[in-house]
Design brief:
This protein is α/β, with parallel strands linked by helices. It has one domain: Alpha-Beta Barrel (TIM Barrel). It contains 11 helices and 10 strands. The strands form 2 sheets. The protein has an 8-stranded mixed beta sheet, sandwiched between helices. It has a two-stranded parallel sheet with strand order 3-4. The longest helix has 14 residues. About 45% of the residues are buried.
Length: about 300
């Protein structure tokens, strides 16, 4: 199947070199990776200009090999237990108001890397107490103890991406489980109503309109508060091909559909990714007081 030509609305402008260089110098100087670069994100320029980046911890090689993802697959690297402090140092150096942390999937580790996630959250809290912390986690193979470790570190946002409708998992997400991912989100929403829950999906993979609506309903039932929806872009010719490029008006329709299903905030657009404008999503949901009124709850 031939990949359709990239439409005009997916072209982005090159950012000022200084903006990109600042982010890269202050992350690479700490020996850190960013998912922005490793996943070939189309928003690197815009995010660099806004002084934001999503840190990639636990190495840059994934133990899974999803056919849509640009992150490298291969033997995982050894865990670096000083990495949380290095991330915290970079967050402070960049003077971030909102930090986003994600990782490759580490099925080789007993806890999937949950301890390193939790220590990273704590390190950022200690060095930059005014910075909100968002983490985008793997499924930890469904381990409730690993997810509880994450919850106990008290990040402001816990995200876990469904990525796509369930029918496509067998082809594109071997090793993952749609039901298991929903259970991760539900576990967080039930155990920690004071933490914002978030997920993200891609479209243009061959999904149907009704399948997307069904996914949205599943997210609402799991207690997920925020959803990002973006266009799938084929990273290389060896990856799964794009089925269709959705025009901007269809993303606006998907946003409205998600809100109608009961999701508190939906950000949808051709170039939207799971951490795109993450601080805006966090601030909007905080103002809506969707987190069970925890911040404004009066002592009994």
């Amino acid at each position: 199947m031939n990949t359709p030509r990239l439409p005009s609305w997916l072209h982005t402008r090159l950012p000022p070199a200084q903006a990109v260089q600042k982010i890269r110098l202050r992350t690479y100087a700490q020996g850190l990776a960013t998912v922005c670069k490793e996943a070939i994100c189309p928003n690197q320029g815009e995010c660099s200009q806004r002084g934001t980046a999503t840190f990639l911890i636990l190495g840059d090689r994934c133990t899974r090999n999803c056919s849509f993802c640009a992150v490298r697959h291969g033997p995982p690297v050894a865990v670096e237990f000083d990495e949380p402090n290095r991330v915290a140092k970079a967050v402070k150096s960049l003077q971030l108001r909102h930090s986003v942390i994600t990782s490759v999937t580490r099925d080789d580790l007993p806890d999937g890397g949950a301890f390193v996630f939790a220590e990273t959250v704590r390190a950022i809290r200690n060095s930059s107490p005014g910075t909100s912390v968002e983490i985008l986690i793997p499924d930890f193979q469904g381990s409730s103890s690993a997810v509880q470790t994450i919850i106990d570190s008290a990040p402001d946002v816990i995200g876990h991406n469904l990525e796509m409708v369930p029918r496509l998992y067998a082809v594109l997400r071997q090793g993952a489980s749609y039901t298991r991912s929903l259970k991760v989100l539900q576990f967080v929403s039930e155990r920690a109503p004071g933490i914002i829950t978030k997920s993200g999906i891609m479209v243009g993979l061959g999904e149907t309109h009704q399948e997307v609506i069904g996914l949205m309903r599943d997210l609402v039932n799991a207690g997920c508060m925020a959803l990002t929806i973006g266009q799938y872009l084929q990273p290389t010719e060896n990856h799964f091909p794009v089925s269709r490029f959705l025009p901007p008006r269809e993303f606006a329709e998907l946003r409205d559909l998600g809100l109608a299903q009961g999701i508190k905030l939906v950000m949808a657009g051709p170039l939207v990714r799971s951490s795109y404008k993450a601080i805006e999503i966090f601030e909007k949901l905080s103002k809506q007081d969707v987190r069970a009124g925890v911040q404004n709850r009066s002592p009994s």
